[in-house]
Automatic annotation (TrEMBL):
Keywords: ATP-binding, DNA-binding, Metal-binding, Nucleotide-binding, Repressor, Transcription, Transcription regulation, Zinc, Zinc-finger. Residues 49-139 form the ATP-cone domain. It comes from the Bacteria. Negatively regulates transcription of bacterial ribonucleotide reductase nrd genes and operons by binding to NrdR-boxes. It comes from Anaeromyxobacter paludicola. Its cofactor is Zn(2+). The keyword Transcription regulation applies. This is Transcriptional repressor NrdR. Belongs to the NrdR family. InterPro entries: ATP-cone_dom, NrdR-like_N, RNR_NrdR-like.
Length: 153
């Protein structure tokens, strides 16, 4: 770490402790050049990808948009707020683990639908009907038929 006083590149850590409710590590350092002390904070870099929309626009990832869409789809269904949060966290984790800087909105939607289908099929159909923007009843019925075929008897 470069000393903020003399610019020397070598130091030693005098003390380390948790800071900001575990979101950072506070380190007291002593410069080996000028022997002055300074504090640094170390945080995990959370890289959220940009979302590439269907029309080509790019915008920052917003987990709240997914949560709100799922709440609407799961309205009056036996899906708890905790289950919705777990689903969104799983999708968010998948995006972070991919390491991609840009992700298509369609990939996010498909990841949400895949998990929602296993959680509640009625909520899945509701979400899919908005997400896929069915143009007519035939497309909607085709999705339902596919869902009925997937269901174990």
């Amino acid at each position: 770490m470069r000393c903020p006083f003399c610019g020397h590149m070598e130091d030693r850590v005098v003390d380390s402790r948790e800071a900001q409710e575990g979101q950072a590590t506070r380190r007291r350092r002593e410069c080996l050049g000028c022997v002055r002390r300074f504090t640094t904070y170390e945080r995990i870099e959370e890289v959220q990808p940009s979302v590439v929309k269907k029309d080509g626009r790019r915008e920052p990832f917003d987990r709240q948009k997914i949560v709100e869409g799922l709440r609407r789809a799961c309205q009056k269904r036996p899906v708890s707020a905790e289950q919705i949060e777990e689903l969104v966290a799983a999708v968010e984790r998948q995006l972070q683990e991919s390491g991609e800087r840009e992700v298509r909105s369609t990939a996010i939607g498909e990841a949400v639908m895949q998990r929602l289908k296993a959680l509640d099929q009625v909520a899945y159909v509701r979400f899919a009907s908005v997400y896929r923007a069915f143009r007519d009843v035939g497309e909607f019925m085709s999705e339902l038929a596919g869902l009925a075929q997937d269901k174990p008897r």
